[in-house]
Write a structure and sequence with these properties.
single chain; Methane Monooxygenase Hydroxylase, Chain G, domain 1; 2 domains; three-stranded antiparallel sheet
Length: 223
């Protein structure tokens, strides 16, 4: 009887540990399956509750690292796609593109370009909206999209409401058209930004000049 009571107490203790870990780290279904295996092993007498608890804690720690790496990579990928979208559309509407950069530590970035004197507002809106249009096409999401939306609102604030909506919609369509046609360039540029990010271990990545143009055009930089 005492052995059964002790076993039940161990099960309660183990369940509490597991519940605490799952709540704290939100590890979802895989942890739940691991938990079920652990409970079965203990009930079969294959392992002690302490040994199982140690394994679960190690499993949770490993999952936390893996989840962090996955989230970091997803965030960086979204930012690379976003900034590449700006660069490709800036080039596509005829702006003089100088550089594209991203700062993975802050989530900031941008395409540096010079607008011609006769640039129209639709083209400027197209370039500004290109980041979140690229995210939409790639099924990604970064923290930059809302900032760009606010920038567009400021750009169009002086226009009557109906005209604001028309220019915004036309800029969005122009960005989408360019990105669909030049999607390979977006992917090439984003891939290079990410490669440098992870190869060099730097949170700030910049591509500029001839190297940037070569990536956009799909040729070797020294060609």
């Amino acid at each position: 009887m005492n052995e059964i009571t002790d076993l039940r107490a161990e099960i309660v203790q183990l369940k509490k540990l597991i519940a605490d870990q799952m709540y704290a780290h939100e590890l979802g279904a895989r942890t739940a399956l691991k938990t079920q295996d652990a409970l079965i092993a203990m009930l079969r007498g294959e392992e002690t509750s302490q040994a199982i608890a140690d394994k679960l804690e190690a499993f949770v720690a490993a999952r936390r690292v893996a989840d962090h790496e996955t989230l970091t990579q997803a965030r960086d990928s979204a930012l690379a796609i976003h900034e590449s979208g700006h660069a490709v559309v800036a080039h596509g509407v005829g702006f003089e593109l100088e550089a594209v950069e991203m700062d993975c530590a802050t989530g900031n970035g941008g395409a540096d370009y010079i607008m011609p004197d006769d640039a129209d507002l639709v083209a400027e809106v197209a370039v500004t909206s290109a980041g979140y249009v690229a995210e939409h096409l790639a099924r990604r999401a970064s923290s930059m999209a809302y900032r760009d939306y606010l920038k567009i609102r400021r750009l169009l604030a002086h226009l009557p409401e109906a005209e604001r909506a028309s220019v915004h919609a036309e800029g969005f369509r122009q960005a989408e058209t360019i990105l669909v046609v030049e999607w390979d360039a977006v992917l090439r540029l984003a891939a290079e930004l990410l490669a440098r990010r992870w190869r060099d271990g730097s949170s700030i990545v910049i591509i500029e000049g001839d190297e940037l143009m070569a990536l956009l055009q799909g040729r070797a930089a020294d060609a």
